[in-house]
Design goal:
The longest helix has about 40 residues. About 90% of the residues lie in helices and about 0% in strands. It has one domain. The chain has one helix and no strands. By secondary structure, the protein is mainly alpha-helical.
Length: about 45
Amino acid sequence: MMSEKKFKKFNNNKENNKKFYNNKKIKITSIRKNTIININIRKKA
C-alpha cells in the first residue's frame, strides 16, 4: 500500500494531468473551428 502522502501526490498528478489534457483538447478543437471558419471566409471572398 502507498503511504498517505504519496497517495495524495499521485491523486493530484492524476487531476492535473486530466486538467492539462482537457485544456489541450479544448485548444485543439478551437483551433480546428477557427481554421474551418477561415476556410469558409476565404471561399466567400
